Amino acid sequence: MTGGIRRESEWPLAKQLKAAILARRAAKGPRKKRTRPKPRQYTIADLERARDRVAAAERRIDNDRKNNPNRGRAGLERAQLELSVIESQLRLRGLIE
């Protein structure tokens, strides 16, 4: 390229490159949407584990000697949320009352 004007000899190479890229993209097939994973099917064992995690998080907060009341709170809330999700799914499937 000289002075911002393309020479005639550069065009064929660019066209070949573009054609090669388009051919490779066409060979892959059409782009697809990402499919979401199916929700997890929880079991009674998962429920027991979640209850144990909540109890462990509560023990950690109770045994904490620091003066910060919010310390460890996020872990407890996360464990409680997971427990409630598991319980609601198992109730929906009729595995617990």
What can you see in these coordinates?
The protein has 97 residues and is an all-alpha fold. The protein has a domain at 44-92. It has three helices and no strands. The longest helix has 20 residues, at 73-92. The chain is elongated and about 75 Å long.
Helix content: 55-70%
Number of strands: 0
Biggest sheet architecture: none
Mean pLDDT: 84
Give me the strand/helix succession: HHH
Estimated structural class: mainly alpha
Q: What distance lies between the first and last C-alpha atoms, to the nearest angstrom?
A: 77 Å
Number of helices: 3
* Overall spatial form: elongated
Whole-angstrom Rg? 29 Å
The low-confidence parts are none
Percent strand equals: under 5%
Key phrases:
97 residues, mainly alpha, 0% strand, elongated
Secondary structure elements and their pairing?
Blueprint: H1 11-28, H2 44-62, H3 73-92
Provide a concise account of the structure shown.
The chain has 3 helices and no strands. It has helices at 11-28, 44-62, 73-92. Helix 2 (44-62) packs antiparallel against helix 3 (73-92).
